[in-house]
Amino acid sequence: MNMPPYGHLAQRSKKAIWIGLILIAAIIAVFLLSMNLGAVRMTPQEVIQTLFGGGDARQQLVLFKLRLPRIVIALLIGAGLAASGAVMQGLTRNPLAEPGILGINAGSGLAIMLYAAYFPVATLGTAFMMPLCALAGAGLTAVLIYSLAFKKSEGLSPTSLVLNGIGIAAGISAAMIVIAVRLTPEKYQSVYIWLAGSISGTTWNYVLALLPWILVLVPYILYKARVLNVLVLGDKTALGLGANLDKDRFGLLAAAVGLAAASVASGGAISFVGLIGPHLARRLVGPNHKQLLPISALLGALLVLVGDTIGRSVMHTGEVPTGIVVAIIGAPYFLYLLAKAKA
Amino acid sequence: MMEATSSSYAETVPEGTPQENKPKGRPLAAVTILIGGAALLVLALLFSISVGSISIPLGTVWQALFHFNPDNMDHQVIREVRLPRALAGVLVGAGLSVSGAVMQGMTRNPIADPGLLGLNAGAGFVLAAVFAFYPNMSYTTLILYSFLGAGIGAGLVFGIGSLSKAGLTPMRLALSGAAVSALLSALAEGIAVYFKIGQDLAFWYAGGLSGIHWTQVNIMFPWVAAALIGALCLSRSITVLSLGDEVSSGLGQRNGLIRLGGTLVVLVLAGAAVSAVGAIGFLGLLIPHIVRYLVGVDYRWVIPCSGMFGALLIVVADIGARIINPLQEVPVGGLIAIIGVPYFLYLVRKGGRGIR
User: Fold this and answer.
1) What does B149-183 look like in DSSP terms, one character per residue?
2) A95 contacts on B by Cβ (under 8 Å)
3) Rounded-to-integer distance, Cα B113 and Cα B40, Å
4) pLDDT at residue B18 in the model
5) Where is it localised (chain B) (predicted)?
6) What is the DSSP letter of B109?
7) Burial of A105 by CB count in 10 Å (0-12 exposed, 13-18 middle, 19+ buried)?
8) Which residue of A has its CA nearest to B6?
9) Measured between alpha carbons, how far apart are the two ends of chain B, in Å?
């Protein structure tokens, strides 16, 4: 996976701190900008007044009930998906690994589609049930893939995990196609928008549902960064260095799946963040997961926040699902980096 | 990258598990598959021609093929509808599986499939635009646009992948493919959301052989045939390449040239298939895995056997698509997954040759 040998670790970590600080500054800047933008225009002055208790009722409603929860959830989803992708790429040693590859998106998508197929269209848009369905679908799929990939004699091989994931995802997509044919166009449209990755209609309840996952699992994988560094070196080396392969893999994988499932449940499949977040981070700070993981999370958060801010302010008539904007701005930049790279 | 995975993984596998370190072929199994497969394929083709919304007895099929009578309705149906459909299935199935086998062999990445080259996403993007702005376009023109889109997708993937100073490595190609696919799919999704045509696109993505005419078969045939022959000519070199770049150049092979040839083959085969039947993506991934499990990792056998298996699977799935729900056909892509996924999972579970 194109990882240069380890070295200059001290320099790297210094550089990573600077990059981290720059990213945090950028996130704060976009955060402030994002509060001003949207269907209801608010000047920076109005935003500040409203934040500190001023402003009229309408401004308060827009800012506290509509914009802030959305901004916060964009940050959480981005961080969760990118961190999950970084762990998966490290564990599988496959640069194409991302949360979607383990069938997480497919599983939640199928659950959403089943829900859409059997419930009236009016309950779809506002229902709190959509994320719950998605979480259940993603979780069940992850358990299924994991139990298929696990062998008593050999433990858990990352390659078999990825291949099982692809197989299950293909099966689920097929089932989704069969259901899609039967959905009414209106229902299909609402499912389609959700699948494209949309976080409109977020309330503080959604934020509260996602927050614990991020708060528990991101620190856990950061704590396990050293183990991930060892696992990347290959099974034999990792065993020689005293890693408990199965236990470590299971813990990290469960964390990655949990992060992806919770994030996808809250915001649909913004899966591209999980692929490019870690790649961009690797270009910035190198392959050491101690730096790679936090920078990935920050990059992911920034990317989704920018994507969502653009998605809800470019069009006057409606909004573009966040996942689409993220891919449209993220992919060209990623391709540019790919073309520019020397080695 | 997968090279590292397979070699380091091999050492943790307990003894007694079948291991393939050298490109061992199993010619006997391969020949059995080719002969048995050909026989089954002929049967499946005959069956495919005889079933459908009107069931036509096999005797009539025979007569239509060899003693054609233009005044007979059944003969007309067979000649004009069923036969091109069945033949297109063979071309598409063989093409997709062979292109998957060539890609996996060249890149040594077990999850490489033709979709990664941006073909499906490119075709999807152009079709979304066509559905949105020219909704009444004829099917034949649609296919041309689809092929154009596949070409644009692949062109972007290769163009951007090869811009880099380090050249076009398999890794860079795969990443470039993933990013271009994400971009083009996002654009297609954006158009689909705005114009509310997501369901139409889903139908196309599901893939299907209905509506195939001689025109498509005639356009596809020379290209697909030439590319299949090209794949067979390259097969020995691909076996060597699948051992790693160093081994390959050590044996005097010109890796870049082989990759170029292999890539051309993949583009033609997958592009033709995508433009004719939509994105039946799983086939190109699945079949080479099954075949490597059965015949070993010598691509001189993997490539022809993949072609045979792919053709057989798609013809059978197409029969199923028409039998299960004659009024509203079940998407072929869905049926292929339903047949193929359990077997694929079983293979991964057994962990045989070429899977890891």
Assistant:
1) HHHHHHHHHHHHHHHSTT---HHHHHHHHHHHHHH
2) 1, 171, 174-175
3) 26
4) 43
5) Cell membrane
6) -
7) buried
8) A159
9) 12
Instruction: Please state whether B167 falls in left (phi above 0), alpha (psi between -120 and 50) or beta.
Output: left
pLDDT of residue A293: 94
Angle (nearest 5°) at CA B260 between B259 and B264: 115
Whether residues A324 and B205 touch (CB distance < 8 A) is answered with no
Contacts of B163 (CB under 8 A, 6+ apart): A339
Gap between the Cα atoms of B259 and A143, Å rounded: 38
Write down the domain spans for chain A: 40-342
First to last CA, chain A: 12
Phi, psi (deg, nearest 5) at residue A317: -85, -30
User: Do residues A313 and A38 touch, judged by C-beta distance below 8 A?
Assistant: yes
Distances in Å between the Cα of A275 and the Cα atoms of A85, A262, A295, B188 are 6, 17, 14, 19
CB-CB contact of A311 with A322 (8 Å): yes
Give the model's pLDDT for residue A127.
Answer: 56
Which residues, given as ranges, of chain A have pLDDT below 70?
1-10, 120-128, 153-156, 315-318, 342-343
Please state the φ and ψ torsions of residue A156, each to the nearest 5 degrees.
Answer: -115, 115
Which of A338, A340, A342 to substitute to test the interface with B, most B CBs within 10 Å? A338
Q: Who has greater pLDDT, B34 or A195? A: B34
From the list B6, B13, B337, the residue facing A174 with the nearest CB is B337
Say whether B175 and A96 touch across the interface (CB within 8 A): yes
Q: B299: Cβ–Cβ under 8 A, 6 or more apart, which residues?
A: B23, B101, B102, B105, B235, B236, B238, B239, B242
pLDDT confidence bin for B147, thresholds 50/70/90: confident
CATH architecture of A40-342: Orthogonal Bundle (1.10)
Is B74 in a helix, a strand, or coil? helix
At residue B146, the 3 state secondary structure works out as helix
DSSP B95: H
pLDDT 10s digits, B157-169: 888 877 777 666 7
Is some CB atom of chain B closer than 8 A to the CB atom of A177? yes
Fold annotation for B94-347: ABC transporter involved in vitamin B12 uptake, BtuC (1.10.3470)
Residue B141: which residues within 8 A CB-CB, separation 6 or more?
none
**Cβ contacts from A onto B, under 8 A:** 203
Using H for helix, E for strand and C for coil, what is the string for chain A? CCCCCCCCHHHHHHHHHHHHHHHHHHHHHHHHHHHHCCCCCCCHHHHHHHHCCCCCHHHHHHHHHHHHHHHHHHHHHHHHHHHHHHHHHHHHCCCCCCHHHHCHHHHHHHHHHHHHHHCCCHHHHHCCHHHHHHHHHHHHHHHHHHHHHEECCCEECHHHHHHHHHHHHHHHHHHHHHHHHHCCHHHHHHHHHHHCCCCCCCCHHHHHHHHHHHHHHHHHHHHCHHHHHHHHCCHHHHHHCCCCHHHHHHHHHHHHHHHHHHHHHHHCCCCHHHHHHHHHHHHHHCCCHHHHHHHHHHHHHHHHHHHHHHHHHCCCCCCCCHHHHHHHHHHHHHHHHHHHCCC
Q: Which residues of B touch A320 (CB under 8 A)?
A: 190, 193
Q: Is B216 exposed, middle or buried, given 0-12, 13-18 or 19+ CB atoms closer than 10 A?
A: buried
CA–CA separation, B42 and A313 (whole Å):
58
Q: Which pLDDT belongs to residue A316?
A: 61
Q: B1–A94: do the CB atoms touch at under 8 Å?
A: yes
* Cα A77–chain centre separation: 5
